[in-house]
């Protein structure tokens, strides 16, 4: 392919791109931009090509300049820009090197204003709806309808009923819902509830744990593959998880655990509504409703460079936060009774709770939330006779014998020796965590190796290293 043809192809890509491309020389002079950039930045294509990114930033046409950030660091950059036309855009830029010399920067920006206006409008509707509920309007038949719709789902606290009402209002739409909350609060349960209330209820509900899919298998698992796409491929190929969700709901749990390379592939599928099976040349349109969940702060992950900003905005259309169980203790009795009923039915017994269990159950903070509560009750049920007593509940690592409940003096001395003066448990744990990570930074070659050794995710390791100001020792 000749140079002239390559130039024509490049020019066609720039001229027809939905996003706004900039090609910037090392001096800062703008060599070319896509035509649509004029509406976002308020200058014609010709005017933009007669100036520099330094001047655009100085005159407030855009701020900050993503190209200038690449010039400063020599690395790819991503940030949010404000323009003189009042638009908000995600800007990404990549360096172009000739050997070791940076010769140009290629950047593209995506306008977020319309999406943000939609989010603001929805937030206003949420606020008005909340005020409407607080004033007592619509609580009669609406409450009865909600009770019937919830079925056997326990949602007795005002905050959880507010979440349920919100989900019921957005269920008829195809808007992407982002479930946020600690592990075990019930994100999957509410995602299934949303699916059940939606027009897609007769379609499939595909539950995917993103943390459980290895990066090397993500594309074949999510998009599927054709027969013979790779060595060991199943005869006849395989339908991917996204395609399996056609006509229904795709629920991506632990979305914050996806590596950056995988996030790029997922973003394209969400944007286009199309997928291409591995080894195939034709794309397929897939109609599905996307619901995602995470126990991480995705906004913080974006700031730390662990999550794509454009994917975050794609997912954060309808954010729903599920509070931890310690903030809705009024639900504990109903959750306990439901779990006890399930256990009695499953094992064919009729065990009951002693009155002394309630002080323990209501006083515990349940860091593992509903999941921890259910596990504690099942262990207690299996280790009890006809009556479940407080001594059979094993919470906060308690022992079940009287002798083990009494701390040994040697243990107390050991704990005391490990704490610095005026240092609390939180500070001591942070210090210990940093010491362990610092040792592994010297011993192990990568964050993936550290993650495997500690039994946690690689993004968690990256986050912890940044928190403690640690780096892998490259020259061990």
Characterise the protein shown here.
The protein is of the alpha/beta class and 476 residues long. The protein contains 22 helices and 17 strands. It has helices at residues 3-16, 37-41, 45-48, 53-58, 66-73, 113-134, 141-150, 158-170, 187-197, 218-223, 241-244, 260-272, 298-303, 309-315, 332-347, 357-363, 369-382, 402-405, 409-418, 425-443, 447-454, 458-468, and strands at 20-25, 30-33, 62-63, 77-83, 88-98, 101-111, 177-180, 205-209, 224-225, 238-239, 249-253, 274-275, 284-285, 289-294, 318-321, 352-353, 387-388. Strands 2-1-6-5-4-3 form a six-stranded antiparallel β-sheet. Helix 8 (158-170) packs across helix 9 (187-197) and helix 15 (332-347) crosses helix 17. It is globular and about 85 Å long. The model is unreliable at 133-144 and 397-417 (pLDDT under 50).
What is the mean predicted local confidence, pLDDT? 80
Taking all Cα atoms into account, the compactness measure Rg is 27 Å
Strands across the major sheet, in which order?
2-1-6-5-4-3
Helix content: 40-55%
Biggest β-sheet strands, sense, barrel: 6 strands, antiparallel
Number of helices: 22
How far from one another are the termini? 46 Å
Shape call: globular
Indicate the structural class: alpha/beta
Q: Segments where pLDDT lies below 50 for 5+ residues?
A: 133-144, 397-417
Instruction: Tell me the number of strands.
Output: 17
The oligomeric status of these chains comes to single chain
Q: Give the DSSP E fraction (strand runs of 2 or more residues).
A: 15-25%
